[in-house]
Amino acid sequence: MRTSRDDPPSRAGLRRLAGALLLGGALLGAALPAGSPAAALDAAVRTPVPASGYRNAREAVRSGVRDYNAGDKEGAARALEYAAGQGHALALWKLGRMYAEGDGVPHDDLKAFEFFSKIADENADEGPDSANATVVASAFTALGRYFLDGIKGSYVRPNVERAYEMFNYAASYYGDPNAQYNLARLYLDGTGVTQDVRQAARWFNLAAEKGHPAAQALLGQMLINGQGVPTQRARGLAWLTLARDAAEGPKDQWIVSLQEQALAAASERDRAEAQAQVDGFYRRSARAR
Question: Which portions of the chain are predicted below pLDDT 50?
Answer without folding.
Answer: 1-4, 19, 22-51
